[in-house]
Amino acid sequence: MKLLTFSIFLLMPLIIYNVEGQGKKQGSTLADRVQQLTDLSSKKSVLRFNANKFKDYVKTAPRNYSIVVMFTALASQRQCAVCRQASDEYTLVANSYRYSPAYSNKLFFAMVDFDEGSEVFQMMKLNTAPIFMHFPAKGKPKAADTMDIQRVGFGAEAIARFISERTDISIRIIRAPNYSGTLSLTLLFAFVGGFLYLRRNNLEFLYNKTMWGVWALFFTLAMTSGQMWNHIRGPPFMHRNQNGQTSYIHGSSQGQFVVETYIVMALNGAVVVGMILMAEAAKGKGDPKKRKIFAILGLVLISVFFSLLLSVFRTKTHGYPYSFLFK
Ligand SMILES: *[C@@H]1O[C@H](CO)[C@@H](O)[C@H](O)[C@H]1NC(C)=O
After folding, report:
1. Cβ atoms within 10 A of the Cβ of 63, count?
2. 137 lines ligand 1 (CB under 6 A)
3. CA 38 to CA 271: how far, in whole Å?
4. Is the CB of 42 within 6 Å of ligand 1?
5. Contact 302/271 with Cβ under 8 angstroms?
6. pTM of the model
7. CB distance 282 to ligand 1 below 6 Å
């Protein structure tokens, strides 16, 4: 009995020391971590986390701050064009927060890139990007803490709304005004207006069918070759793989490179030229010899470039059975 009391007495300081030490360590690390996060965010509004930092600042309890994390893949070889756009919107939210009166140490913004923290992706069982997740100050994230970008998109306003639903912090998005659209439209109107004014005594050209034809043709070629898709999705110009080989045509029908759309546009254009030559030949006017040449040239152009178009299509759509002239 005496021995037990004695040993407890002996051990007591050790136990107290340990409990206190632990408490102290955690307390100080929380304050430290909050301080570190505050310092880091004053330099950069979106913090970049690798696996270690993610564990330290997001996974380690206790936390008294919310943290929003964007899981993304910005490296160009990942070919995630939406990641880049989503990242711009996300940075806009973080910057708007950084300079808003609501700014405090209750909320931080971070991002984990797949190529800097793939362990994090494994740990969180994520297999797509981008994903926006809110880690609340207390407890684990629930299903609603993952932003449903399929439904609401990833515009800065949508992200801010998501954050205000999950925390009590509302962020007003401050976008830098973008005058370039207005400016180019004004310039275009001025140009066209000025041109019409200068030519006001001779507006015959407005009835020029060839001019309208060329415009319509150009518009059609631009649209059918996927320029609008490029504008919206922002694909890479071309692709260079690890072995240094460049590919100009995307290997699947789900994507395209910018240069590929120019190639397709040129092929389509050549087919159109062939068609025009043949139509000219069939008009029945002019030198028969010349018309014969036109007809043959047109036929060759159409066959060759249509075959090329088909083979481009075949490389993208595996299992497509038809080809002509070329495999
Ligand atoms: C969180 O805890 C740290 C350390 O105690 C403190 O400095 C910080 O102000 C707290 N943050 C909030 C939002 O209460």
Report:
1. 18
2. no
3. 61
4. no
5. yes
6. 0.54
7. no
Q: Please work out whether the CB of residue 258 comes within 6 Å of at least one atom of ligand 1.
A: no
Please write the tens of the pLDDT for every residue from 40-94. 998 899 999 999 999 999 998 889 999 999 999 999 888 888 898 899 999 999 9
Burial profile 232-256: b = 16 or more Cβ within 10 angstroms, e = fewer:
eeebbeebeeeeeeeeebbeeeebb
Find the length of the chain: 327
Alpha-carbon gap, residue 221 to 126, rounded angstroms: 40
With vertex at residue 255, the alpha carbon angle to CA 156 and CA 219, rounded to the nearest 5 degrees, is 85
Q: Report whether 267 contacts 221 (CB < 8 A).
A: no
Q: Which residue has the tokens 């100080």?
A: 28
CA distance linking residue 246 with residue 249, whole number of Å: 9
Å from CA of 144 to ligand 1 middle = 25
How far is it, in rounded angstroms, from Cα 202 to Cα 290?
A: 34
